[in-house]
């Protein structure tokens, strides 16, 4: 990491420490993170932290909302935030952008990986450079990060989604399908895996008609895939959409076909985007959390970590609330999932 001189009075000390660091850099690539974070804290005394937050992609409403929270936290905490990501859900592009952030000398990189395995080497490189590496929204390889910020508990979210599908179907038997974002997205896969396993025990008469269907984080692709599902499986009773554009495409197809009374649809989406489909029954329930708060929480915890503060279970985070910290000490759960329906969607602004 680039280092700044604290002050004229401390210049001799800092220059000496820099010389030592330069001589030993190659030998210290795997030295303990606490020492490196101490250097980061020293840097912060003479300037603002640079905290980079990378979504899976930019330009979709969900990550636009998260950006609002990130920027608000930057203002409140007096840190420099860099919100940057690819324009499509592309892990290779994320790798290139992380390389650039490393070269820019940021203090923290918090990333929502499109493919955790693909990002592992570059995140390790960042970590070896003394950069605080975190994930948010979507889990990275657990060995690559020092803090993992989850919006909800994956198992809780998955089982809740399947319960809402059965509730909307009005029966616990029949055919259903799952349309997801990207097949390598770890958070989406965790929710779907949890839901499918739960259904095997709780709803054994539910029949998943095909493997999870990718929509590439695009509403139009989800719309087209839904039309294909409806045509291929005329008896289908329910569709789950995981990734915020997916339920919108599902709702669009159901609305177009006039199948609101025949096909139940639930999934992960913002209430403002879902409102037109919720109002006419093309979507029954969408399940989410506040992405603005998630963005805020990510920056807040990044600064706390850079400051050397302990992230504790039950701690109160301004503008967010109390958080859970799991036994591993580095997995943070923001909040339980929230349900949005035609009755309450109008009450939210995200």
From TrEMBL:
It is found in: Cell envelope. Its main location: other. Residues 51-310 form the Periplasmic binding protein domain. Gene3D superfamilies: 3.40.50.2300. Belongs to the bacterial solute-binding protein 2 family. InterPro entries: Bact_Solute-Bind_Prot2, Peripla_BP_I, SBP_2_dom. Residues 1-21 form the signal peptide. Keywords: Signal. This is Autoinducer 2 ABC transporter substrate-binding protein. CDD domains: PBP1_LsrB_Quorum_Sensing-like. It comes from the Bacteria. It comes from Clostridium aestuarii.
């Amino acid at each position: 990491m680039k280092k700044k001189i604290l002050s004229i009075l401390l210049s001799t000390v800092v220059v000496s420490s820099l010389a030592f660091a330069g001589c030993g850099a190659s030998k210290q690539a795997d030295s303990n993170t606490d020492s490196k974070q101490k250097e980061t804290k020293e840097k912060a005394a003479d300037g603002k932290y640079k905290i980079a937050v990378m979504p899976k992609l930019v330009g979709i409403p969900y990550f636009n909302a998260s950006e609002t929270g990130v920027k608000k936290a930057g203002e409140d905490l007096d840190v420099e935030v860099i919100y940057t990501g690819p324009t499509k859900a592309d892990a290779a592009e994320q790798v290139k952008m992380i390389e650039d952030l490393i070269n820019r000398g940021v203090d923290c990189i918090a990333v929502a990986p499109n493919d955790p395995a693909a990002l592992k080497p570059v995140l390790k490189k960042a970590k070896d450079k003394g950069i605080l590496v975190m994930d948010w929204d979507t889990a990275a390889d657990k060995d690559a990060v020092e803090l993992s910020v989850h919006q909800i508990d994956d198992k809780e979210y998955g089982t809740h989604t399947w319960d809402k599908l059965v509730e909307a179907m009005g029966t616990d038997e029949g055919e259903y399908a799952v349309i997801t974002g990207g097949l390598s997205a770890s958070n989406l896969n965790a929710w779907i895996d949890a839901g499918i396993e739960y259904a095997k025990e709780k709803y054994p008469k539910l029949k998943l008609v095909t493997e999870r269907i990718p929509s590439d984080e695009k509403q139009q692709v989800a719309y087209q895939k839904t039309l294909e599902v409806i045509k291929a499986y005329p008896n289908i009773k329910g569709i789950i959409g995981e990734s915020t554009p997916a339920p919108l495409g599902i709702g669009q197809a159901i609305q177009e076909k006039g199948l609101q009374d025949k096909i139940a649809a639930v999934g992960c989406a913002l209430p403002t985007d879902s409102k037109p489909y919720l109002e006419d029954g093309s979507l029954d329930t969408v399940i989410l959390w506040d992405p603005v708060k998630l963005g805020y929480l990510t920056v807040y915890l990044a600064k706390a970590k850079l400051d050397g503060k302990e992230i504790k279970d039950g701690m109160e985070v301004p503008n967010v609330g109390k958080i859970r910290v799991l036994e591993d000490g580095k997995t943070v759960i923001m909040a339980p999932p929230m349900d949005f329906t035609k009755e309450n969607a109008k009450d939210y602004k995200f």
